[in-house]
# Entry
Amino acid sequence: MSSDVVIVGGAAVGSATAYFLKVALGYAGSVTVIEKDPTYARSSTTLSAASIRQQFSTPENIRMSLFGIEIIRSLKQRFGGEADIGFREEGYLLLASQAGKAVLEANWQVQQAEGADIVLLDPQALAARFPYLNLEGIAAGAFGRSGEGWFDAHSLLDLFRKAARAAGAVYRHDEVTGIERRGGRVEAVHLESGERLACGVLVNAAGPQAGDVAAMAGLTLPVEPRKRSVFVVKCKTPLPGLPLLVDPGGIYVRPEGDVFICGGAENEADDPRADGDFEVNYALFEDVVWPALATQIPAMEELKLQRAWAGHYEYNTLDQNAIIGPHPDLPNFLFANGFSGHGLQQSPAAGRAIAELVTTGRFQTLDLGLFGYERIAAGRPVFELNVI
Ligand SMILES: Cc1cc2nc3c(=O)[nH]c(=O)nc-3n(C[C@H](O)[C@H](O)[C@H](O)COP(=O)(O)OP(=O)(O)OC[C@H]3O[C@@H](n4cnc5c(N)ncnc54)[C@H](O)[C@@H]3O)c2cc1C
# Structure
């Protein structure tokens, strides 16, 4: 058996890649997506907070998310009149103390230059718009008037997957357990079922397991699963117009129907690989998240924890940014990895970029050379100031 392109992992990034190859770019070759769990129960995609923002400090990250919003706005044209991912375009609000104000403003300048619709608000404007906030110690906020919000992650994945399949991409329920290389090329993948599948190009879209998949080809990729807990809370006081709020310490909260979800500020000093560990970190909620929320939004002193879940970030230990493109020594091995908490919104741009590399050997629409593997090999991080 053989396939021109084999994609390892069929969640948001793998399915977006298959979609851009087969549908958007009309690639005539064969595309096979190998997914070990078609329920996606433990994929980052389905366990994510499913939000999109333009508030990054790196132009390439902003451009990727601007393309994400373009896709969300054109769902019906691309996928048909029924397509709906429940997008709530209600903005992000990043709050800064006096110490963080200069960085917030500098980031805003970059966002303005990229055409993102973000406005800077002083404490007076914040108080007028969000009267339920405690603004003691807050010097400024940056609010996304449009182009930011949240949606249903599984629905987006489903749209990409269905369209890719309808255009001929083959999804296989199997696990890649080995990668065969000869000299400077990947020759084939070996599957749990015992099959050998020869391939022309291999795309690593294995999310938190991307480092393990790279290791099968003898490559080093600094991507590993790191646990992130999400808490679902009820607040009896209405908080009209609450966007996705991020406090100066990195705690976030946003509405989800008639409840709220929140989390953030994991202790980076105690953040080990989390293989197989999906236990919710309730201490984080009690000790860090709830106190921070009660400070920022006094009505949240009274909140009630309803439930919680834990998912895995596909954590890039070098710089928490995407790694996109070929390995220099193995040019038919392409990475689409390491998004570290912002990969769902970047999945359309990543999928398109990989599809362009496969079909033309170059980035065509958005130059993502900054996120190439070369920086990993050189130990040269890309510093994104807004990793949430
Ligand atoms: C709690 C949390 C909150 C987040 N919030 C946001 C957010 O608000 N906005 C945002 O943009 N991003 C967010 N993210 C990040 C986002 O979810 C990920 O960046 C994105 O979903 C990555 O998609 P993926 O397809 O690369 O990985 P995944 O969704 O993890 O998919 C990888 C797939 O590969 C399969 N796989 C792995 N190894 C193999 C193998 N050997 N063989 C076959 N299949 C294999 C897995 O089964 C899995 O389905 C969050 C993540 C978490 C955990």
In short: The radius of gyration is 21 Å. The first strand starts at residue 2 and ends at 8. The CA atoms of residues 278 and 309 lie 8 Å apart.
